[in-house]
Amino acid sequence: MSSSININHKKVHSSNHGNHHWWLQRITAIALIPLTVWFVCSMYGLITTDGNNFASSPFNFIFLITFILVGLVHGKLGIQTIIEDYIHCNCLKYSLLIFVNLLVALTLIASVFSIFVIFLLLF
Amino acid sequence: MENKTLNKERPLSPHLTIYKPQITSVLSIAHRFTGFALFLGLLIFCWFLIFSAFPNHQFSQNMTILIAKIFSSLIGKLFLVGWSFCLFYHLFNGIRHLFWDIGKGFELRTVTITGLIVIFLSLIFTIVSFVVFFISNGNL
Questions:
Q1: Which chain B residue's Cα is nearest to A75?
Q2: ipTM of the predicted structure?
């Protein structure tokens, strides 16, 4: 999973992937602070009161999509780190990494469209 | 002898068996563990949303009802309270991590105090969750 080029028969590894991973993890983490506060408040509100007004607000629409998107990306980065740390058998490691990435991508796309359906078509 | 070292049967120093759990190490592994649990819960939540968007489709409808039933039961609510603890703990400890990333808060005393604050806040917020899930007459 690292990009490298051969210069005079020596492998030179690009540092971009690790750095990118680190920054993306921090940026998503910062974004998730207000998003999580919103998520907790709105879920408590949904549970304790009548939830019919939830789907009529555009803010709920935007924040729910953003929360799920950013949360899944942040989680995927973390799971990648866990897999890389604990699984040493290359065959299992790479197949798990690919599987998690594909599962998150699928869940992401399906969730966004489903939220569109719930907010715009069902209510 | 050579084959043994090549096949990775090398001796390993003891770690978990000899080190006393510290607030630093325990909170660190808890951060990873809660992150993992949150990811699984988020996936379930997303798929619940996806299935609930298609009430006219038999399979989707069955899945929605099944998930709603599971999480309305006693065990399900306990899982939700547990997931809430993971959320709050990971959130507060994450903020602590972000301070470390900008270089602040590495002194041992600060680490201990902020660690205890994180645990305390997580427990308080989880208790609120518990009240919301179990005591208020909510529609889950």
A1: B39
A2: 0.88
